Amino acid sequence: MLPVLAGLTLAARYVPGHEFGIGGDWYDVFRLPSGWAGVVIGDVSGHGLASAVVMGRVRSALRAYSLIADDPGEALTMLDRKVRHFEAGVLTTALYALISPDRTMLRISSAGHLLPVLAVPGRPATLLDIPVDPPLGVGRPIGSRHTATTVLPPGAVLLCYTDGLVERRDEIIDVGIKALVGVVEPDDPETVCGAVMSRLGLDQPTDDIAILAVRREPEPPAS
Q1: Residue 70 is part of which domain span?
Q2: C or N: which end of the chain has fewer Cβ atoms within 10 Å?
Q3: Which of 4-18, 97-111, 129-143, 192-206 is the least confident region?
Q4: What does the alpha-carbon distance between residue 138 and residue 24 come to, in Å, rounded to a whole number?
């Protein structure tokens, strides 16, 4: 269940790609003591109960690290160490963003995860241009992960998603991502999620699908 956060409107969808109804994709939104809002989406490789168990541990660990690291890249660096030690051999991607208490600013870090879509009123939707660091738990450890900062204008929608939404066996993933960008509008998050799932969702997906839409509330009209 998504929390109620002042200045933000939220919506999400999850569709399992396995008959057991569970998997390794997840999203999370939480309020930190500082007033910043944490926004997370991630994907643990594999399907079914084994992936879901790892996902639960990774999700809980990131929540804990968010309380001691006020930088998304630093929190994902600590999460990488945890995955390497306790979940060895499990490929995990994650995107972690922090939205400022006044909702005007976004700080974001990606561990091998697909770029989110940003839709701003009066402009075409685009992929957010941020560095993408390696996934968690694979390759050589990197010293520190990148954190990008961007403005979150009034009425803007940030849409995060997992690869099950845009990846198809018979086409390159860029085709699905382009189609997604063309669907996202700076609208009510429930409307956005409905449009995205109607256009790109599958009746019987072969991979988990998770999407999370976050909108900064528009400014009230001038009186």
Answers
A1: 8-216
A2: C
A3: 192-206
A4: 17
- Report if residue 182 sits inside a domain: yes
Sign of CA dihedral 122, 126, 132, 137: positive
- Dihedral sign, CA of 78, 84, 87, 90? positive
Relative to beta strand 37-47, strand 23-31 is antiparallel
In a domain? residue 112: yes
Counted domains in the chain? 1
Looking at the domain assignment, is residue 3 inside a domain?
no
Residues 174-205 as b/e (b if ≥16 CB within 10 A, e otherwise) read eebbeebbebbebbebeebbbebbeebbeeee
The answer to whether position 1 is within a domain reads no
Q: Are 71 and 107 in contact (CB under 8 A)?
A: yes
Whether 116 contacts 158, CB under 8 Å: yes
pLDDT score recorded for residue 207: 79
Single-letter residue type at 10: L
CATH number for 189: 3.60.40.10
The tens digit of pLDDT for each residue in 162-180 reads 999 999 888 899 999 999 9
Tell me: pLDDT of 66 over 70. yes
Average pLDDT for 122-127: 97
